[in-house]
Amino acid sequence: MGFSNWVFLVLLLYWLTLTSSSDGLSDFPPRFLDYAKRQDFFDWMVGVRRKIHENPELGYEEFETSKLIRAELDKMGIKYKYPYAVTGVVGFIGTGKAPFVALRADMDALPMQEMVEWEHKSKVPNKMHACGHDSHVAMLLGAARILQEHREELKGTVVLVFQPAEEGGAGAKQMIDAGALENVKAIFGLHVDSKLPLGEVASRPGPLLAASGFFQAVISGKGGHAAIPQHSIDPILAASNVIVSLQHLISREADPLDSQVVTVAKFQGGGAFNVIPDSVTIGGTFRAFSKESFKQLRQRIEEVVTGQAAVHRCKAVVDFQEKEKPFFPPTVNKKDLHEYFQAIAANMIGAEKVKSMQPLMGSEDFSFYQEMIPGYFFFLGMQNETQKPLQSAHSPYFEINEDALPYGAALHASLATGYLLELQSEVHLPKGRHHDEL
Question: Is 428 annotated as a binding-site member?
Fold first, then answer.
């Protein structure tokens, strides 16, 4: 651990001993949670979330969502810049000067039909907030309101990052390229978790989520009549063997960080029962927890597809679609930020509700931010164990337990406030453009 990290931890431990400070700064996590649980505050966040849920928008199409965010920021008197990455919004609360710390929420929905029947069901056919991004926006707006109401306590500037296109569109990368992280020292993000109990949080230091990428392969043979297959070169047979061989690349190791996954989820070929097609298209994703393993897996996929196709006298072309669907790096949490998160969360909800977790094969474009600056990502529980089980994300039956909203808003606000309080003396603003040129 570097010297600056040791300094940070010493300052953090010192701060945690100030249980009765005269200015009340040491108790802000529980204060912020109490504030977020006020009925008027809670009802407002729920209303925001439901408006977004009724009108889902896909990546880089979040114009109405962005408009709603800007309207709410205007009501709070919070300055912001727009647009970033087509629809993104970046707000600023505090002194306008260093240090800068960022909080992030993603805005986009998924191209799927909602199957949950309720008053605020999606009004847009085949579009649904099935991953909780509507709640993420509501919670970040909630954090913004808390921070704006307590802005005198901020010893720097909180940057609010409302980001488009997390679902495969690498909106985080576009936000970075547009300058959203200028002079930002660290960034925090969260995701709702349908399996984790309400009022609990979970994360881990190091790799948390996997690197991921897409691939598509066109396997070409020679079509013909099903009655005389000996005169054809069957690409369906070749593609089937390719898929079987790709499954051998899947590795579930004792150490989860050594695991890797390849999933073929697309198979298109043929349009008649009695005609062997000329070609078949397959596609899917691949995942690993390190850049090195991910790179090796990519190479092996191409070798397996082309090699197995050749065994069956077919040709294959593999496209990893990096321009349309950029590879996501692994989501990796800094150890010192993990310890900081544990301290803040424990102060708010109790140490027994701050859980450690195993790494997951899911991916997140929050990882692009972490490649640029220290970043921390965590999961927020929302399962009420006295009610029906919630469905997992990306299900047409996915639902949000809105009782989780105050926890997310208060944690966001607390993480930013505490970071500025403890690290202000350690942050040196680099030369160049500054966020305080507002």
Answer: no
